[in-house]
């Protein structure tokens, strides 16, 4: 069977995250510059090869000072680690619309295996004749597992920045000719 390549459609994708701030509200952010590819056998997504990278310099939380802090050595250290990467080791079908993705997430030079549930849209054709597929990924990681340790104690108890990072990722891919 022929190998099929799928490229990300950045105008219909979003790499989002949320972190608790001051223990009670969420701060949302996203990466503006990223790339992802999928390689499948024909149109079968089971066991697909999936690779993703995001430019750390493109982190955006709608606050320039906070974004600068996130790029610094306290967090992502963009100067020495300009990209966050993910390479799937498994993409397993659970049932018709559900998959599970496992792979190595590399942040700040630290690589850890993670597993997330994936909602799979199926293959669709857009009004312009492009063959597309959509994937929605939600999951949680602990930022300290990747050495993103900075924090500040609050006078009232607790910490300024939560350890749990919730991921909310919407990806649309276009089949390549």
TrEMBL record:
Residues in Lipid/polyisoprenoid-binding YceI-like domain copies: 5-174
Protein name according to UniProt: Lipid/polyisoprenoid-binding YceI-like domain-containing protein
A Pfam family matched in the record: YceI
């Amino acid at each position: 069977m022929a190998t099929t390549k799928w490229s990300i459609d950045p105008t219909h994708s979003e790499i989002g995250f949320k972190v608790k701030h001051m223990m009670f509200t969420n701060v949302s952010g996203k990466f503006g510059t990223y790339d992802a590819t999928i390689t499948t056998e024909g149109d079968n997504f089971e066991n697909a090869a999936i690779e993703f990278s995001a430019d750390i310099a493109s982190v955006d939380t709608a606050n320039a000072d906070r974004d600068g802090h996130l790029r610094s050595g306290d967090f992502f250290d963009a100067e020495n680690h300009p990209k966050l990467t993910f390479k799937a080791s498994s993409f397993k079908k659970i049932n018709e619309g559900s998959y599970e993705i496992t792979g190595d997430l590399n942040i700040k030079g630290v690589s850890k295996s993670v597993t997330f549930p994936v909602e799979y849209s199926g293959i669709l054709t857009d009004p312009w004749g492009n063959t597309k597929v959509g994937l929605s990924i939600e999951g949680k990681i602990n930022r300290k597992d990747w050495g993103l340790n900075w924090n500040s104690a609050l006078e009232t108890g607790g910490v300024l920045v939560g350890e749990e990072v919730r991921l909310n990722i919407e990806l649309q891919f276009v089949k390549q000719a």
